[in-house]
């Protein structure tokens, strides 16, 4: 079942084509890796799907609903949630409160008490391994735990489609592997569909079902990780060296 259909989507900033006529489909339950060199247009594409940007042309359909012009909060109600490259948390709130207020922002939480939302927040903190840090201020958490908290807050919106933007950025190899395992566990437990931008290609390649590769705003390759790793266009995009036929 196709959960997301991105059809000929483009986005320009001034004279720069950040996303240039990109089309692809995502099946329910897939983990899609979105890769490409810096400036390839990956984050812009994610922002078009989440609603932070609106495309200049093309169409985005989620679960059969045309969301092309829909604002982010309405997309969130439909089940689309996003993490950010730089965690957007309230620094002087505890981990628990950061997740609690995300829960209270949901459509189905209008009649939920603060106590009920806080109790649910414990579930998401436990899911990402932060239960013991629930009373620590976000500003006092190290980067690895901030990334987990950002993930917990995104999950608190109860998404069906989770957009992850560089969850491993700035982490050491051990922390990156822990993040990878946590995300796999979450995907299985919650039956999520995931589109995941990452520069730690080795870990993403062994996690994703399928890889999309962007370069200069265009989608230049799509397929299984093993085939993408050997694709001459992909190698050239990353190395800048033309590969002989």
Structure explained in plain terms:
With 245 residues, this protein is an alpha/beta fold. The chain has two domains: 1-79 and 159-245, Rossmann fold, CATH 3.40.50; 90-156, no CATH class. It contains nine helices and ten strands. The strands form two sheets. A six-stranded mixed sheet has the order 6-7-8-3-9-10, sandwiched between helices. Strand 1 (2-13) and strand 2 (16-27) form a beta hairpin.
Identify the overall geometry: globular
Radius of gyration: 18 Å
Spell out the helices and strands N to C: EEEHEEHEHHHEHEHEEHH
Low-confidence segments, given as residue ranges, are none
State the CATH topology of the largest domain: Rossmann fold
Structural class: alpha/beta
Supply the key terms.
globular, 2 domains, Rossmann fold, 6-stranded mixed β-sheet, 25% strand, alpha/beta, 245 residues, 4-stranded antiparallel β-sheet
What does this entry show, briefly?
The protein is of the alpha/beta class.
Write the SSE topology.
Elements: E1 2-13, E2 16-27, E3 31-35, H1 42-50, E4 57-62, E5 65-66, H2 72-78, E6 80-82, H3 95-104, H4 114-127, H5 143-155, E7 161-165, H6 173-190, E8 193-197, H7 201-205, E9 210-215, E10 218-223, H8 225-228, H9 232-239
Parallel strand pairs: 3-8, 3-9, 6-7, 7-8
Antiparallel strand pairs: 1-2, 1-4, 4-5, 9-10
Helix pairs in contact: 3-4, 3-5, 4-5
């Amino acid at each position: 079942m196709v959960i997301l259909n991105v059809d000929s989507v483009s986005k320009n900033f001034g004279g720069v084509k950040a996303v240039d006529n990109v089309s692809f489909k995502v099946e329910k339950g897939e983990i899609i890796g979105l890769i490409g060199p810096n400036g390839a247009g990956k984050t812009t594409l994610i922002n078009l799907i989440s609603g932070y940007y609106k495309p200049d042309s093309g169409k985005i359909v989620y679960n059969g609903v045309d969301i092309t012009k829909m604002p982010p909060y309405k997309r969130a109600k439909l089940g689309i949630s996003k993490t950010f490259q730089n965690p957007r948390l309230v620094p002087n709130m505890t981990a628990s409160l950061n997740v609690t207020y995300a829960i209270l922002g949901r459509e189905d939480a209008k009649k939920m008490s603060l106590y009920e939302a806080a109790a649910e927040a414990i579930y998401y903190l436990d899911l990402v391994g932060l239960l013991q840090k629930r009373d620590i201020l976000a500003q006092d958490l190290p980067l690895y735990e901030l990334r987990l908290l950002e993930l917990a807050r995104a999950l608190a919106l109860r998404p069906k489609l989770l957009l992850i933007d560089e969850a491993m950025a700035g982490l050491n190899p051990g922390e990156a592997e822990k993040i990878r395992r946590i995300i796999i566990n979450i995907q299985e437990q919650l039956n999520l569909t995931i589109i995941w931008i990452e520069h730690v290609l080795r870990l993403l390649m062994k996690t994703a079902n399928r890889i999309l590769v962007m370069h200069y705003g265009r989608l230049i390759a799509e397929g299984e990780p093993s085939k993408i790793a050997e694709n001459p266009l992909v190698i050239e995009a990353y190395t800048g060296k033309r590969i002989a036929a």
